[in-house]
Amino acid sequence: MRAALIREIGQPFQVEEVHIAAPTGREVLVDVRASGLCHSDITVARSGMGIGLPAVLGHEISGVVAAVGDSVTRIKVGDHVVAAALQPCGHCQACLRGNLNGCTNPGSLDRTDEEAPRLDVDGVPVVQMQGLGGFAEQALIHENQLVAIDPSMPFEQASIIGCAVATGAGSIFNAAKVTPGQSIAVFGCGGVGLNAIQAAALAGATTIIAVDIQPDKLELAQKFGATAVVNSGEEDAAARVLELTGGAGVDHAFVMIGVPAVAETAMASLGFGGTTYLVGGMRPGAALDVRPSPADSTLLSKQQGVRGIWLGSSNFYADIPMYVDLYLQGKLNLDDLVSQTIELGDINEAYEGLEGGGIARSVITFPAR
Predict the structure, then answer these.
(1) Closest CA to 333 of 120, 92, 133, 161
(2) CATH code for the domain of 94
């Protein structure tokens, strides 16, 4: 099969022929039909983040099940599926409580060193990012990472549910538990941020402030439900958020891009009891200037907090079908998130476009096999 490989950190993707093994045990072979380009993948490609090489990245996958291992029970051949970028073992305490993000045995879903690798090039094992490897024509995935969905769901829109939607909307519904009448600010209006904005509107937030440096993203944010926009490249974002809330600050501030200075601006935008949520991954060694002294900040006096979120604190077995239903009912706008569809060979140019702004999500599409 063809796959886009990363062979060296900081180098472009290379489309090559990769051998994929037959499924065994609880593995599922998926014919990938769509794979979203998330910013996290290009961050890994450029910074490494500890991943082994060579590697197939890509964690926003939708497709059709082509074959299953002999122990698979939840998924069958012909199912339309969405993958999630979590690897829940299913039997640790966190998994049994439904906290799939807190799984203590994610490595148990991978093949052991004694087994043949799932992917290889001329006998050299190829790493699957987060057990997925979606920048390829096929993916061999443990069934715990897959959810069967309504086959009427379009593949392109389905692919982005596993990360962009689950992370953005999940941050609103699962982590912050936004309630009617509350106020939020979203810093960074890419695919994840736009999903947070529309989820906040669904949750009944009455003040939804979108913050970005790209005018076209701010325009999109209004289409998704933002009640006000702030161009942080042109004005002091924290001061403007405070002004828009009559000096009160927001109840929830979501940081969708992994830049410490943006996180600190979000913290300065909070009101009494407010929380800043760190959603976008930061580079290794990144640090925040958090000053608890009342002389330096309002963290203590206004009882504010800072919290990390991973994949929207999602229980994706329940959440992914819910998002599919919301889309099919016309309540969740995913069509405007798919800015363009591309072929696998266009991946490097598409990531350049994503970096330049104006694109919420590019999605690689593959023909039916």
Answers:
(1) 161
(2) 3.90.180.10
